[in-house]
Amino acid sequence: MLNRNLFFMKKNYFTLNTFLLITFLTLSYSAHSQSWQWGVSGGSFNQIQNNEKTESIVTDADGNVFFLASVGRNGLHLEDMELTPYDAGSNRDYVIASYNCSGDFRWSKVIGGGDKDFIKNIQADSQGNIYVGGTVYRTSQNYPVHFDTDTILPQGNPNNLDEHKRNLFLLKYNNTGEMQWLKMPQPEDVTFIDAISHSLGADIQTDALGNTYWLCILPPGTYADGSFINTTEGDNFFVLKYDTNGNFVEAIIPDIQFTGALESYKMVRNHNTGNFYITGRTGSQGTLTAGGETITHNMYLIAFSPEGEMLWKNENSSEIGGYLNDMVIGDQNNIYVAGSIYDGDTFSGITFTNPAPSSSPFLMKINSEGVATWETHAQTENSNTMIYGITLNNNEVAVTTGYGVISWQGEELAIETNQGYDVLFARFNKSNGTIIEMTNIPGNLGFYDYGQSLAADSFNNYYVGGRFGNLLYVGDETLTNGSSGTDFFLAKYGTDNCNCTLPQPGFGFEQDSENQLAYTFTYSGSGYDTIEWDFGDETTSGEESPSHTFNESGNYTVCVTVTNECGSQTYCNDIEAVLGTNSFVFAETKVYPNPVNGVLTISTDTNIEYTLYSVLGSVVGSGAMNAGETTIDFSGYESGIYMLELKKESGERKIVRLIKN
Asked: Where is the signal peptide (predicted)?
């Protein structure tokens, strides 16, 4: 009998096909007073393994929210809407649903079959398309796998166990829930054993252009219609890249291997640098190796180059250490991790002090080199509490979990001892870890309720998802669960600003002619109530058009965040502050506006050639210009990130990162 909550391997062979892993997405920032606005819930009458809960949340530019929830079969519903289940009755399906900013239902899908399928998270691109990757198990003759009513996979042949056993899938929905494509990379003749016991679609990350990076565990074989042949012995991690049209691009092999049992893990990709990060917790029954080095402690964080080479790794010091449950990448390439920690443990160079014998929830900021710059952790009583979800929100980092009695930097929340947990939601200043707010969603006593996933819309409203046992009080609404297990929920925390107009930030900059590390920044965006600059070197400013001197040469991402009554928006630009005689060769060359919607202007004092590259490195435009101004029409380009290379006749080059809205 397979235990599908852990990975077990013999000689690096994967033999378990699902596990509990929670994922969380990025939030936006709001400096104004917020409250719980509305909530929805759903589920079944079944008590499924690992509970019915909201696993993942994303939003689009119009303020629509999309969420993924694991569910059972009997009486499956979303609010008062009956949904069609596909599970045999004791395993799980998944619901994907969408609501608008005001809490109005938009659409829903149910994915699953007769066995215990696995989907970890959902992702969205800049156009609001939704991407889903995971694993379905085609072991039931009476309950075929459904991707709702869009696609029904053929049932297996009881006389041939190796027929119709492809089970890894990646699919795309458009913003209104219409399936665009479904990809299953395994060959048609994949065997029952290879599919069920050695393969897993584990995690996905999607960038603004719709390129999806899909972390899978694969045995040797041929994949993606022959485009990728895996000759590596055993079952190993691979990152399969697909473009927005569902075309296979490449397979990346991260330098990480495991044998035995791997308790949990999560992958995040830095879409600015292309680096990958894998974090999690090892168990006593397995061995994890990265870059040829064995992970010897419970908690780990490993950085990989875009090609999969290990850059660095961090481990905790304790043999009984806590958990790393989630992480997110900031616009300055910092890494924020969260989970739980014990007294005396050390991680990324920081030693934790916790007088309580139980574990404490913690939050930590780590720079791109793997060195922690700050940490903060709570004190708990009579409970073991860990952070399940973390997200960034412009100048904030936010977390969610459940709590009984908790104190964090002087903020306190408590319910009666041994009477269950309530949902916790807390926000911190991402620069220094100072707490901004800690609030809750109350439930009734005796039940254990948890926040487990986070997101925010373009109007800076937060969305918290998770699980609850009986009653959940979201503002003026009461969500009710009448079953024996948990139900999933989604709650909006923010303001009634769905039709509001956010500020649109922007800025230009000039380098000082004498001090090459000194810059003057000029704000050029729309009106605002408050403004904050982040210069990428741990310094900030509240002036509208500040001057700043960097301490040393380097590449810096400078960001400005502006806020009005609707919320906040952030705009960033890369600055190359370099001492030397060549640092002024492009001082009189300006590229604007950035981000660009229609026409891009290049202004220069000399003759230059330019080449425009997509984020994939393909040349999408080129030309030459004399001193003066030249324009490039961007209206026909897709939204996303582009690289503009400028080259002078003398050979000097400059790269400008452009954002097309």
From this structure: 1-33
